[in-house]
Amino acid sequence: MRRIPLIGGTPLASAVVCAALALSLSACGGDDGGGSKGGTGAALEGRGPITFVTGKDRSGYLQKQVDGWNSEHPKEQVRIIELPDEPNDQRQQMIQNATTKSDAYSVLSLDVVWTAEFAANRWLAQLPKDQIDLSKMLPATITTGQYRDKLYAVPSASDAGMLYYRKDLLEKAGIADPPKTYDEMWADCEKVRKLPEGEDVDCYFTEVNKTESMTISAVEAIESAGGSIIGEDGKPALNTPQAKAGIEFLVNAKKEHMPKEAVTLDTEGGRRYFQSGKLLFQRQWPYQYALANSDDGSSKVAGKFAVAPLPGPAGPGVANLGGHNLAVSAFAKNKATSLDFIKYLAGEQSQRANLLATSKAPTIAALYDDPEMVKKFPYLPVLKAAIASAKPRPVTVKYGDVTAAIQGEMYDAVTGKKPVDQALTDLQGKLQPLTAQ
């Protein structure tokens, strides 16, 4: 019997799935969007095998969750298709599949900023709101799955940038609290570098390579300075002192405080650099917490670091809202099975298990206040607050072109190819036609 609850409802009743999860813990279209025939808005029908398309799973835990589903649904087996680490590559492969109307992809794990683009192009099936209870999810995550007030994706994991820092080195330098401002962070670096243990430690790292991470770094830097890439009127707003101050922070940080190889480090490269013990402060996602605290010998900083809110120019900074949503391809054959699998994977029991196993941020609000979770992951209150105040990347149906423009111009500024003023002026000009209504 199929026992799939509403998301946010009661746990799965199946003893088989519960046992499997417990074991794993130890180890530019119209309004209607996609239906069963690529945009008809029809009911989700069809049962049988499906695929789950997602980025690279570094935790090794996803397969265990899928195994739990498969043991309960022998006639509706799920096969994972892993795409590359880099979000740009993931998005491109999903778009290639959609533009050929291929049924090879069933359930898609989408970056939260892709919903509008995919829904507008009728690459997603519209989801039935009456079958999905979003009331228990963090408010900030719910709108990321909607386009024109219709539901196209279910929030399954959230994200917000946080400051990882070497607590042991700060304490040895006589510093009691993590920095709240950029100036405090630089001053802390100088104190730590006077220690024998801190001589060879780099100060700070946030991603400044020419990838999606550059867009994220630009959003956080500009928003922390009081500006915005896209204004409230939906138009680019880069000709402001705040935008200039934000990008100048990135330029100066890369030049004076980051590792020499900063522009070549991606998310995983930054994680490995921090875990090698070579870094004092790092802007990073929650997933790093479990990996950096691993006792298998892969991390030299296990038990030596902590997490705090991002600093800003005059106080706490602004984090970017990240995360992933689950959607059904408009061209999938077995959409009913796909919807049930989304309910399973985004349900409270699965999100709890995923948090415990991987430290990835859930979308279920109650998990952030659960005493067991907070004891294991002390940063959860910090993360919950960061998500609540986080700012999204530009939400647009031409997101691919928008983020490519941001990445290119900001990379030129950070690497010194262009002055900050020129890069911002050029970006303003590129974004104007891309964001025109």
What does this structure look like?
The chain has 437 residues and is an alpha/beta fold. The longest helix is centred in the middle third of the chain and has 16 residues, at 241-256. The chain is built from 17 helices and eleven strands. The protein has two domains: 15-160 and 322-389, D-Maltodextrin-Binding Protein, domain 2 (3-Layer(aba) Sandwich), CATH 3.40.190; 162-320 and 394-435, D-Maltodextrin-Binding Protein, domain 2. Helix content is 41%, strand content 12%. The strands form three sheets. A five-stranded mixed sheet has the order 2-1-3-11-6. It has a four-stranded mixed sheet with strand order 8-9-7-10, with helices on both faces. α1 packs parallel to α13. One of its GO terms (biological process) is maltose transport. Pfam families: SBP_bac_1. Belongs to the bacterial solute-binding protein 1 family. GO terms for molecular function: maltose binding. Keywords: Signal, Transport.
Taking strands numbered 1, 2, ... along the chain, how are they ordered across the largest sheet?
2-1-3-11-6
Tally of strands: 11
Mean pLDDT across all amino acids: 91
Helix content: 40-55%
CATH topology name of the largest domain: D-Maltodextrin-Binding Protein, domain 2
Multimeric state of these chains?
single chain
Major sheet summary line? 5 strands, mixed
CATH second-level architecture of the largest domain: 3-Layer(aba) Sandwich
First and last CA, distance: 48 Å
Helices, by number, come to 17
